[in-house]
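Kindly review these tokens for lecture notes.

. . .
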Amino acid sequence: MKVKSNPSNLQILYEDNHIIIVNKRAGDIVQGDKTGDTPLSDIVKHYVKDKYSKPGNVYLGVVHRLDRPTTGLVIFSKTSKALPRLNKLFLSKDIKKTYWAIVKNEPPKPQGTLVHWLKKNPKNNKSTAYQNEVKDSKKAVLHYKTLKQLDNYVLLEINLETGRHHQIRSQLSSIGCPIKGDLKYGFDRSNKDASIHLHARHIEFMHPVKQTPVNILAPLPKDPVWDACL
């Protein structure tokens, strides 16, 4: 999926002198990769440059990432002062991020905690979830609860305790709850737009410079299944 570089496509959810928070679309890559597609970071830079008529290069720090087929909240730093502070908030887990996932099957319990050991395979860019520690694996912990029973699917809310490669996708798949559209992790068919139904829905943290609360909710993508969640 080719990313459009038109800044008018951006959905800005929050912006001040130090931070900009964007609602990422499916197919956007946060940072440049081997595909050569225009990354979201470049699109945001163009937006900042145009909006404020900035000469020369625009500073923009990438704080965290979302998988390409995933949608929702992405934070960027607009200043070199804010970037290390935001990084520190993520490392200390002082940023609370909540995801919504639409899955194929109901989990074993309405809510619970999943603990696995994830091992990434760089060749196929996939993580495998193990019940016990294996060589080169990393511990992964998430908390989930069922929000709504849909006609053919189940809506889950996810809170991460760790931030591992494809963590939500692999852990949910391992309990028989693959995310809608996620062929890589066991769903039986892809979504037409190559998305998966995983959305970074809500984020909450103390502003690293102003020390005021930031509390942002990302609107859901427009499609009939997401619409049924509201």
In short: The CA atoms of residues 49 and 58 lie 6 Å apart. The mean pLDDT is 94. The radius of gyration is 18 Å.
